[in-house]
Amino acid sequence: MEEILIFKNAFLIDGKAHEPLPDATVTIVGETIREVVSSAEARSSVKGRIIDLQGKTLMPGLIDAHVHPGNIEVLLERVLDHPPAVFVHKATRILEEDLNLGFTTLRDAGGLDWGFRAAVDHGLIRGPRLKLSVAPLTQTGGHGDKRGKRRDELLPRNTLGVYPAVCDGQEEVRKAARDMLRRGADQIKVMAEGGVLSPTGGPGNWQFTVPELAAAVETAEAAGTYVMAHTYTPRAVQNCLHAGVRSIEHATLIDEETVRMMCAKKAFLVPTLVVFDVLAREGRGQGLDDAYLHKLKKVREGAYGTLEMAHRAGVKIGSGSDLVGPFQHLKGRELVLKAEIMGPMGAIIAATRTNAEMMGLAHLLGTIEPGKWADLIAVDGNPLEDPSLFERGRETVMLVMKQGKILKEIL
């Protein structure tokens, strides 16, 4: 017999941008939401465990659409100093912490293999559900190809042997995308531009041609999925949009023409504000040299203006953090920063409903309504009045439920 659980007296944010319901009752049967009503309308005949959420906000479980739990160090070469057992345990602790912060779903943008997803699904890791990219596709010398000038051998991302896919030309890209799907990827990640931590090139160096990107998109769509692309500037983003890329990451230096094109193509933008904020303050202490910090300053300067421009234009805006190394517990700060531009409700919608839609999970996740999976969190206080509750999630997220199972409860 399926377990019945009833949340009563909750301040409900349902993720649908409706006005909050100040005194709600939500009934869970098994892994599914059965009923969402005001407490006055709740059926007294329904019997089950009752949890009183007076003074708490009940809302959808958070989704972070750009994470790197496998980047246990800021500099990727330092990740290779950790033997496999140490790497797995450190990544596992990051996943468990993410769950405690209220994140019930993560989209890994590269670094974890299918074994982590299996371990979570089997209950061996107490963590969020994982949607994996496994490893990114990059062109020779592109962002993700860490060889630089000094070596010819390709470096793995970690000691488990997760290597980036270096590929050039349509057929190599197509084969690499197919192989990534074989290796368990839920979506394909492409590096369409240089990055802050690229040993060669950087933001402004667009990478992969439109036909190459289109080969990745076609391969992903044939498998029922999509492509997410690392970008910063107009040319890189427009190349991706011409190719049919669904999810545009970062894109901190785009212009109004590119924003209009994103709207026309119905693409999603995933800003990652917190990583720039944190590394600007802490990067040098983590080994970032002047060259890296100069690139970081460049991409950070445009981040807030780009988000404001895209939000004003009506671009579909998701939410990612992109945090690495010892700063991954700050994921909730991404919502605080987005709230400064989008408002608290807008930041919440980005990290729930919009992310679920972008990832093809809107029929299961992202809102609190009958028939969907019971991915819910209870927050001590009202995040519409105080978004910093997300930044302090260790203490303020009082309950986390993933697919009907309570995985954290400190009520």
Rg, Cα atoms, Å: 21 Å
* Tally of domains: 2
Give the uncertain stretches in residue-range form.
Answer: none
Gross morphology is globular
Would you count the extended β strands for me?
A: 18
Output the CATH topology of the largest domain: TIM Barrel
CATH superfamily of the largest domain: Metal-dependent hydrolases
Our count of helices gives 13
- In CATH, the architecture of the largest domain is Alpha-Beta Barrel
Tell me what portion of residues adopts beta-strand conformation: 15-25%
Describe, in short, the structure shown.
With 411 residues, the chain is of the alpha/beta class. The protein is built from 13 helices and 18 strands. Strand 17 and strand 18 form a beta hairpin.
General description of the model:
There is one protein chain. This protein has 411 residues and is an alpha/beta fold. The protein has two domains: 4-61 and 366-409, Urease, subunit C, domain 1; 62-358, Metal-dependent hydrolases (TIM Barrel, Alpha-Beta Barrel), CATH 3.20.20. It has 13 helices and 18 strands. The chain has helices at 76-79, 84-100, 114-121, 170-182, 210-222, 234-243, 256-265, 273-282, 290-301, 303-313, 333-358, 388-391, 393-396; strands at 4-12, 21-29, 32-38, 49-52, 56-60, 62-67, 103-108, 129-132, 137-138, 165-166, 188-191, 227-231, 247-250, 268-270, 316-317, 376-380, 397-402, 405-409.
